[in-house]
Amino acid sequence: MSNQLSSVLWIYFKRDLIMAFRRRSEIFNPVFFFILTVSIFPLGIGPSPEILQRVAPGVIWVSALFATLLSLERLFRSDFEDGAIEQLLLSKHPTSLLVLAKVVAHWLITGVPLLLMIPVMAILFQLSTETLIGMLVSLAIGTPILSLIGSIGVALTVGLNRGGILLSLLVLPLYTPVLIFGSGLIDAATSHLDYTGLAALMAAMLLLSLTLVPFATASSLRMSVN
Amino acid sequence: MFERFHKYASPKYFYDLATLLIPYFFVISWVVLLTGIGWGLAFSPPDYQQGESVRIIYVHVPSAILSMSAYMFMAVSVFIAMVWRIKIAYMVARSCAPIGAVFTLIALVTGSLWGKPMWGAWWVWDARLTSELILFFIYLGIIALQQAIEDKDLGDRMSGIMVLVGVVNIPIIHYSVIWWNTLHQKATISKMGQPSIDSSMLWPLLLMILAHYLFFATYILMQTRNEVLNREKRKGWVKEVIV
């Protein structure tokens, strides 16, 4: 039984990855968006390295947040339209776990490419190695939280015709704690302070959302479908 | 026992109860509100440092407390509605969101008016102010979700999930002044033992907090009664009541 469940989870996980790789623009577009927003800030703020280094943590976090927000819809949208979500809900396996498999796949497709771009951003903003490491740590813990919390918002709005702007209204306030602690961690790293406490706090947020969010997402999906 | 419980939770019973209670709540909350505001604005002493502007406390603190209490009340209603499938609890929860948002806005605006003379700025990005602002956005998100879904029962259940998710923000607001070293002052009345506010200011403040709670209760009763009439408008008893 448990063996069967894990193979079903693997199938769902693999299916989402395959679908994403068949349409590569789905992977690259959020990354391009991320790079574009980050590189627009120096044009608006001015090219002075001191200011850029000062605002870099916030700029990169906010851009990552918007990039995730824009990519959230595809977590359930197309599955909702072609009826795959109904199949998922009809499955005898717990919906929350199946949803979790999809969210993990979503993070691999959108969160990890952002992480890979961070070193490039560090060069653009002339950041120190300490800042770069702090940035990687904070985004590595933070972006899965963004995907998880976002999945509730998508599940709630996927049944609505104009869900897009509503999705951001619902999800952005819930993203703020991640943003605050995430950029706080980078600031601590920049000023050579010990940031294990902040990292542990973010990891706690990740664990909390990992255990609770799938249930909320699963029941929202069930409501959206009926 | 549960049969009885469900009888009390029926929309018809709620309507009758609310109709009975509203006049009392209305009168009592006005009396307490006028007493509290008169005492606070005219008879309580000015602060030795802040002068007359301390009187904003009599609106600011109660509405800030209510912004959080209204949210918790809404969350508990949603929880009850989800666990025991009680429709009336969803209607109560739906009535909470707009007034909670208004209390939050009042707390933010009066805080800003108070901040200008005391801190020298309308707004600072301090933990308590920021978390209260986020609470306001969460309220707006919930209202937007409720408005966006045509089917009211479905809208109740879906926004209910959002309400429960947003509960995480409440302890953050409440403990923000303890966890972080903020510009906003720490709690002065809820402290264990001796409150760090003089009784000449404490009493009108407590009265105003009570007045806000009573006003909230009155509003919830009236708004939920409206909601009941609106949703049950095709039922026979509504026709009898209205006509």
In percent terms, what proportion of residues of chain A is strand?
under 5%
Mean pLDDT of chain A: 89
Treating each run of at least 4 consecutive H or I residues as one helix, how many helices of chain B? 9
Question: What is the helix fraction of residues of chain A, given as a range?
Answer: over 70%
What is the overall shape of chain A?
globular
Gyration radius of chain B, rounded: 20 Å
Mean pLDDT of chain B: 85
**SSE succession of chain A:** HHHHHHHHH
Can you offer a commentary on this structure?
The complex is a heterodimer of chains A (226) and B (243). By secondary structure, chain A is mainly α. Chain A has one domain (3-225). Helices cover 87% and strands 0% of the residues of chain A. Chain A is built from 9 helices and no strands. Chain A has helices spanning 2-22, 25-45, 49-72, 77-82, 84-90, 95-124, 129-157, 163-190, 196-225. The longest helix of chain A has 30 residues, at 95-124. Chain A is globular and about 55 Å long. The model of chain A has no long low-confidence stretch (mean pLDDT 89). Chain B has one domain (2-242). Chain B is built from 9 helices and no strands. The longest helix of chain B has 33 residues, at 11-43. The A-B interface holds A 152, 156-157, 160, 162-163, 166, 169-170, 172-174, 176-177, 180, 216, 219-220, 223-224, 226 and B 130, 134, 137-138, 140-141, 144-145, 148-149, 154, 157-158, 161-162, 164-166, 168-169, 172.
Secondary structure: elements and pairs:
The complex is a heterodimer of chains A (226) and B (243).
Chain A: H1 2-22, H2 25-45, H3 49-72, H4 77-82, H5 84-90, H6 95-124, H7 129-157, H8 163-190, H9 196-225
Chain B: H1 2-8, H2 11-43, H3 57-84, H4 87-119, H5 127-148, H6 152-166, H7 169-179, H8 199-231, H9 236-242
Helix pairs in contact in B: 2-8, 3-4, 3-6, 3-8, 4-5, 4-6, 4-8, 5-6, 5-7
